[in-house]
Amino acid sequence: MKLRKLALAVAVSLPLSVACGTAPAFAVGSLADVSIVDRTTGRALPTWFSDGRWYVAGRPGSNYEIRIRNQAGTDLLVVTSVDGVNVVSGETAAVSQTGYVLSSGSLLPIRGWRKDMARVAAFTFTSLDDSYAARTGRPDDVGVIGVAVFRRQPAPMPAPILEDRLSGPASGAARDDRRARSSDNAQGAAAPSARADAAPMEKSLGTGHGRIESAPVRYTSFERESATPNEVITLWYDSRANLVARGIIAATPLPVRDPRPFPAGFVPDPPAR
Predict the structure, then answer these.
(1) What residue spans of 84-233 are helical by DSSP H?
(2) Torsion angle of alpha carbons 204, 50, 248, 44, nearest 10°?
(3) Nearest-CA neighbor of 168 among 86, 233, 92?
(4) Of 15, 121, 203, 255, which sits with the fewest C-beta atoms within 10 Å of its C-beta?
(5) What global pTM score does this model have?
(6) pLDDT digit string (tens) for 23-44?
């Protein structure tokens, strides 16, 4: 399955937060690690696992990015959706559509809805009714981020291209939305069970169409190993208050030590034995 695709003009190398010790984790996935980063703080949002699903708590009004690191040892195509909308084309998302390509070991920050070959509109956590999907008449899938991962078809390769790449429109008939949804659902477990106190405390979050930012790309080519994704990574999101109300996050989190490298001045004598 040959595709035309876009490529970022400059390779990106950014730090990725990694889970350490006990839960929560900060990145989800196998062939590719996916994390959600609050761009105001620069920190990856913790992920919380409940009833077969991974969740992140967004902060209303903050911009965020989807960071994807290629762990596969070969080029990967990642078709990415937010709220059921393809982040590149703006179409109702299907796994057969356009997506980004990452070289082995590279990391790609996806910071917004692609407007053209040079710009994106920033992802912003906002109310559901102000989300891009809802404002374009597609509110049913607000609150979920999906990454369908494809390996490259083995073939003799030309000289390596070091830049991250973004795929263009797929050739052939695109699959309908039901096929995309069934592929997504096959990777995750059933929805969280209902709880007596499950009513959210505030409006659910969605992803808005934020400020315009520079993000130049170019076209290249990619051939998928299969029409079926090798992996589908799914992250559901909402406000922390709503996730606490639904029982996904504990209402009183465990205290976290925050040791300081320079807490005081000079070195005192130790206590007498």
Answers:
(1) 132-135, 177-187
(2) -70
(3) 86
(4) 255
(5) 0.71
(6) 456 678 889 999 999 999 999 9
